[in-house]
């Protein structure tokens, strides 16, 4: 019996080896499907010639003491760090005061590379604005290495999109835009571009998220992907498995400067509209509603009898804007615009911007708990418009003793000439001024401060501190949990704040 143990032990070891080999063979076959769909190579081959490199040069003023002619390498080039260290050491190792002082201040050229793609065989290219910004010269480099000078058609800084044109020297291949709204989470996508100046590179990944707002601009609506995107990929296309462009690779989030699987692309639905306008007008002509909006929080929704919390709260209306004659007022909540649901302020900003200037649209608002529809003829958003500040001096007013009250953790006073001067409040601002805030109150948490002016309480105008105290007491009796305040700063900029009355 004792002699059987080694044999049994040997048998168990062999069985274990067989199980291990079997598992290994299964694992070896798994990565073939894990790497992605088989069609990636076919798609890449089909569209690669429509993806181009964008080369730019810019003349900049040299800084004093910047000696030597360091080669102008594209940012992120594999040799950039080597040459940077070499020339820093060379500049630091020379004799003090050596060299031609005048030559230190000579202008020099800097070069950079990005990506782009052809959308029209006549020579129309789409890229990022930041790829070509401030460039003195722009060149398109084809996949076969052909270099052609390009001209700028137009840019849109808000979406970071630019359109170029060049004269083809041979027949081109163009790609078309797909429908980014149909993208699903987990769907495979392909990024092609010029990372680290290495030329056309293909990477694949999935759609990690949609409608991503990362606070880069007013119309943030990024596609997030884990397809490898690095420096130099900017302006390159993001393809779906039909070979259609569903996004323009624009930026990454990375502590190291390299890809960590957090890449962002402007969706094709946004890009296609921008490209059409830039080709037609050379600029963007966005719709304008003429309102200032803010988020509808749960507290604000409760104060306005809106369930569930949704829409964009109108905090202010431009006196010369399209919303004013349509009867839209501060306190209204926009829940639908031109047939499209508005879930939050970003939704409204994007849909208004995408709507044609001069179009009459239905705007559904909630006012005092009831839905109303207003017809608005959109104006055009002017990026350079500046609000004119009133400069007329106010008439002399006799000094008056402020009437003060305490409510909602606030010290409140009726506006007077002395208080306007103390808190620099414009004459056009009407209401009740806050002169103090209890640091432990809900008001302090909502960042109300001395000098803010309460214009309305529960959507009714107030002119003295006693009004606020009476209305808050009445809301408590009515069982309300919160009160909605319309608050202005000294310049008259409005916002809504909901405070607990319990």
TrEMBL record:
Signal peptide location in the record?
1-34
Query: Which reaction does this enzyme catalyse, per its entry?
Result: Acts on substrates that are at least partially unfolded. The cleavage site P1 residue is normally between a pair of hydrophobic residues, such as Val-|-Val
Subcellular localization, per the record?
Answer: Periplasm
Q: What is its EC number?
A: 3.4.21.107
Q: What class of enzyme is it?
A: hydrolase
Alphabetical UniProt keywords? Hydrolase, Periplasm, Protease, Repeat, Serine protease, Signal, Stress response
Q: What is this protein called?
A: Probable periplasmic serine endoprotease DegP-like
State the organism of origin: Bradyrhizobium lablabi
């Amino acid at each position: 019996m004792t002699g059987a143990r080694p044999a049994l032990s040997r048998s168990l070891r062999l069985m274990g080896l067989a199980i291990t080999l079997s598992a290994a063979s299964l694992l070896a076959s798994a990565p073939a499907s894990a790497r992605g769909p088989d069609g990636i190579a076919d798609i890449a081959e089909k569209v690669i010639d429509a993806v181009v490199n964008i080369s730019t040069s810019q003349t900049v003023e040299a800084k004093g003491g910047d000696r030597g002619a360091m080669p102008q390498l594209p940012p992120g080039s594999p040799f950039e760090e080597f040459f940077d260290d070499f020339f820093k050491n060379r500049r630091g190792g020379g004799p003090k005061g050596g060299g031609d002082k005048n030559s230190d201040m000579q202008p020099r050229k800097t070069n950079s590379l990005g990506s782009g793609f052809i959308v029209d065989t006549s020579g129309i290219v789409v890229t990022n604005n930041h790829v070509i910004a401030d460039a003195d010269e722009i060149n398109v480099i084809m996949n076969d290495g052909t270099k052609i000078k390009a001209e700028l058609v137009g840019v849109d800084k808000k979406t970071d999109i630019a359109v170029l044109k060049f004269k083809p020297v041979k027949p081109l291949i163009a790609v078309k835009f797909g429908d980014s709204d149909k993208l699903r989470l987990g769907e495979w996508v392909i990024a092609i571009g010029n990372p680290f100046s290495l030329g056309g590179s293909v990477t694949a990944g999935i759609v990690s998220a949609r409608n991503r707002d990362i606070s880069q601009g007013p119309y943030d609506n990024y596609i997030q992907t884990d397809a490898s995107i690095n420096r130099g990929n900017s302006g390159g296309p993001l393809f779906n498995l039909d070979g259609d462009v569903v996004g323009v690779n624009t930026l990454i989030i990375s502590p190291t400067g390299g890809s960590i699987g957090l890449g962002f692309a402007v969706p094709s639905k946004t890009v296609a509209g921008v490209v059409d306008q830039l080709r037609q007008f050379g600029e963007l002509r966005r719709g304008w509603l003429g309102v200032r909006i803010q988020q509808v929080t749960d507290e604000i929704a409760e104060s306005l009898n809106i369930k569930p919390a949704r829409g964009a709260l109108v905090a202010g209306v431009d006196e010369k804007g399209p919303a004013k004659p349509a009867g839209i007022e501060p306190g209204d909540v926009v829940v639908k615009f031109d047939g499209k649901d508005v879930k939050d302020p970003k939704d409204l900003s994007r849909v208004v911007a995408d709507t044609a200037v001069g179009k009459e649209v239905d705007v559904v608002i909630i006012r005092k708990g009831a839905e109303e529809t207003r017809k608005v003829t959109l104006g055009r958003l002017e990026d350079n418009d500046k609000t004119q500040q009133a400069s007329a001096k106010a008439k002399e007013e006799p000094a008056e003793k402020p009437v003060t009250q305490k409510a909602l953790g606030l010290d409140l006073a009726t506006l007077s000439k002395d208080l306007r001067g103390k808190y620099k409040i414009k004459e056009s601002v009407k209401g009740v001024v806050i002169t103090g805030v209890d640091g432990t109150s809900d008001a302090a948490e909502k960042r109300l401060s001395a000098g803010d002016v309460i214009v309305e309480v529960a959507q009714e105008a107030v002119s003295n501190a006693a009004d606020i105290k009476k209305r808050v007491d009445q809301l408590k009796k009515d069982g309300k949990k919160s009160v909605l305040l319309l608050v202005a700063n000294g310049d008259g900029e409005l916002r809504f704040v909901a405070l607990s009355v319990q």
